[in-house]
Design goal:
single chain, 79 residues, alpha/beta, 4 helices
Length: 79
């Protein structure tokens, strides 16, 4: 069950926590999707997020005080 795509949802201010999770998931053989590393500059960001959510096997939420007020995190969870 390795190489499963896992979407990482987090508030940008908590990127250090998200990157730590990404590192652990990658080391365990998973394929984490994190916006800053997985979306190319100039691409259609919102479309790429939706595509990643559609194709993920799981979503990991980095749940912090900041994420519960993040419009992007709320969009990802609602989608």
């Amino acid at each position: 069950m390795t190489h499963l795509p896992i979407f990482i949802s987090y508030a940008r201010v908590n990127h250090d926590k998200a990157y730590a999770v990404v590192g652990r998931l990658a080391a365990a053989g998973f394929k984490p999707f994190i916006d800053q590393w997985s979306i190319e500059v100039g691409s259609r960001w919102r479309t790429d997020i939706r595509d990643a959510l559609d194709g993920c096997a799981a979503l990991v939420l980095i749940c912090t005080q900041e994420c519960v007020v993040s419009k992007e995190v709320l969009f990802e969870l609602a989608y």
